[in-house]
Design brief:
- Helix content is 36%, strand content 24%.
- The protein has 392 residues and is α/β, with parallel strands linked by helices.
- It is globular, with a radius of gyration of 20 Å.
- About 7% of the residues have low confidence.
Length: 392
């Protein structure tokens, strides 16, 4: 297998390229980026099976030509509301299998509309296979597996810094932008309107709405809504679903600050780009203090409500720890984990899929657990599946 990693010089791309090169069936990994010098340095670090290539993804003719020499395209170039759709179209045009870490719901829906074209081209494309979406989608499948009827699903992630895993907001390549693509994406999904399922219908609503949930074993927890693909893709699997949203958890005071920043964008006082720069300037990690440790909050999780044996149930699933590389690893390693599935095929299935539509959660988490620090054995040591009964 010959693998092309777009945005390979970025934080996500370099981890995905290194992981791809670890598979014995991968003959060649091409680290492709507009920053050729950085791509070359990374390819040299990876070893003999890696090489570098200059790639400006906005030059679609050159992009398609580069793709033709490979079997699978792994795309980490963000923000995806700008680059996701044209890059997938290029892969379909040249008949190459594709996977990405798209975390914007708008292009997700547009890319899913390319299903017929992908089937006609005979390729399989998996969109949004990172941390969130990606891991969270498959956690949702795990959390709902014991329910006979699924009424509500929340997928989410924590913005808190955990002493063990040190997660941080997702960072894409940034090779096409001077701004950090993750912060631009985040502000895009905290402003304007987002789409989520309410009362059985997809609706465009304001983000950063607070709600309280009861999380099995952990108790009461506040969650704040944010735009993400899970809210619009999971209803495709669960037609009876009444509510579905993506949420963030953390300290309420942090979300109040985010809401103030989003208001400045929505009222036209700040552009998204300027607000993103503010986030970069304000992203210095806090210094350790001698205060009591924060209560445990799951870093990536899914929460569901439904019916089993005639009784109302709340279920949840989350990771005990993240893959090495913190949130960068949690986003890019799942992307590279698609390669064994591509190698062995998908029982002849072609088209454009979300992770929950084509990947088996147990097999995926079994592979992911092998790449998590301090985790041994199979996925039972990685995924917590808890449940409790609601009050009658």
């Amino acid at each position: 297998m010959r693998v092309l990693v777009l945005g390979g010089a970025g934080e996500m791309g370099r981890i995905a390229a290194s992981e791809a090169a670890s598979y014995s069936f991968v003959e060649r990994v091409t680290v492709a980026d507009v920053k050729y010098g950085a791509a070359l340095a990374i390819s040299q670090t990876i070893g003999a099976r890696a090489e570098a290539a200059y790639c400006d993804v906005t030059d679609l003719s050159a992009l398609r030509e580069l793709m033709t020499a490979h079997d699978v395209v792994l795309n980490t170039v963000g923000p995806f509301y700008r680059f996701g759709l044209p890059i997938l179209k290029a892969a379909i045009a040249v008949g190459k299998n594709y996977a990405d870490i798209c975390d914007d719901w708008e292009p997700t829906l547009e890319m899913l509309n390319l299903n017929a074209e992908a089937r006609a081209s005979g390729i399989t494309a998996i969109i949004g296979i990172g941390a969130s979406p990606g891991i969270t989608n498959l956690l949702a499948m795990t959390a709902t597996s014991s329910l006979e009827q699924v009424d509500e699903i929340l997928t989410g992630w924590s913005i808190d810094v955990d002493e063990q895993t040190h997660p941080e907001p997702e960072r894409h390549s940034g090779s096409c932008d001077t701004l950090n693509a993750a912060n631009v994406h985040w502000l895009q999904q905290l402003t304007g309107k987002i789409r989520q399922l309410q009362d059985g219908k997809l609706r465009d609503v304001s983000p950063l709405q607070r709600r309280n949930i009861r999380y099995p074993w952990l108790g009461a927890m506040s969650a704040w809504t944010v735009g993400h693909p899970e809210a619009v893709t999971l209803p495709r699997i669960f037609p009876e679903l009444g509510s579905c949203a993506n949420v963030m958890i953390g300290k309420d005071e942090d979300f109040k600050e985010l809401k103030s920043l989003a208001t400045l964008v929505d009222t036209g006082i700040l552009s998204i780009e300027r607000a993103a720069r503010y986030l970069e300037e304000d992203s210095t990690p806090p210094k350790p203090t001698l205060v009591a440790p924060m209560p445990f909050r799951p870093q990536l999780f899914a929460w569901a409500k439904g019916i089993r044996d005639g009784r109302k149930i709340i279920t949840s699933a989350h990771l005990r720890t993240l893959p090495s590389g913190t949130m960068g690893g949690a986003t890019s390693i799942p992307l590279a984990l698609t390669l064994p599935f591509f190698a062995f095929g998908f029982d002849g299935r072609s088209g454009v899929f979300t992770p929950e539509e084509i990947l088996q959660p147990a097999a995926f988490f079994d592979e992911l657990s092998r790449r998590c620090a301090g985790v041994s054995g199979h996925n039972k040591s990685l995924v917590v599946h808890a449940q409790e009964y609601l009050e009658p």
